[in-house]
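@channel sequence for tomorrow's demo:
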Amino acid sequence: MQDEVREKSVALTIKVGKMGGRLTAGLLKWAIQKYLAQARNPQIHHGKQTVKQLVSQGAGVQNIEITDKNIKSFERVARKYGVDFALKKDPAQGKYLVFFKARDADALNAAFAEYAGKSLNRSAQKKPSLLGQLSHFKEIAKNLTRDTAKNREKGGVEL
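structure tokens (generated this afternoon):
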């Protein structure tokens, strides 16, 4: 009997100001309505989420394999396009599975196209190394000769 009562009981907390210290029937009715509305419509997660949260939304789920290790840049692009997705790493192969809702397929294709374009541009543009540039400019500085003749007007060494 006690277990049945415990399972069916609900605790409501209501924050009121200084003047609203009394619990009225209208206030109690309003709090119960808010609770029931929230129970009927659970909060839907958006963006990156777990596979369980994605499946619980009721839409069909599809997946795509990604071999790239740069997942953070994909997450930025997916967030930009408003795609609901979940990442799962396959430890045996070292690949990532991206789960997404079937209705987000067009947005995900656009996000993948932008992501692939960014990663290709990044790999195509090889920047010279900073240490290489530093050593190059050191060699140029060594080859410069200074003229040590004094300029009497300025009092310093003339170059």
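heads up for whoever presents: The chain has a mean pLDDT of 76.
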